[in-house]
Amino acid sequence: MSGQWSGLHFYETSYDNVIEYTDIHSAFNGVCVDSSDVSRQTLAVANSTIHNCQGYAMYIANSKVSIENCQLTNALYNCLSVDG
């Protein structure tokens, strides 16, 4: 059931975060990344699933994020939303 928890939120001062081989499901927003310095890597996601979210599966605002071999599915809004 979606919306069971708020999901992961990476703030503007957080850098070099890694999510690997992870299943994130039933959140409101699966992963949110705030606007930050685009010359530094904020988040790297690999071999992971973000599924069944009540909002966005992944929302990225003006940040440097890499996504490799991931499944982003079944979100009420966009599965992947990138602003900037």
| Percentage of residues in helical conformation | under 10%
Estimated radius of gyration: 12 Å
Biggest sheet, in brief?
4 strands, parallel
How far is the first residue's CA from the last residue's CA? 31 Å
Low-confidence sequence ranges: none
**Net shape:** globular
DSSP E strands, number: 10
Strand content: over 45%
List the secondary-structure elements in sequence, H or E.
EEEEEEEEEE
**How much is the average pLDDT?**
96
The number of helical segments is 0
Global structural class? mainly beta
Largest sheet, order of strands side by side? 1-4-7-10
Plain-language structure description:
There is one protein chain. By secondary structure, this protein is an all-beta fold. It contains no helices and ten strands. Helices cover 0% and strands 50% of the residues. The protein has a four-stranded parallel beta sheet with strand order 1-4-7-10, with no helix packed on it. Strands 2-5-8 form a three-stranded parallel beta sheet, with no helix packed on it.
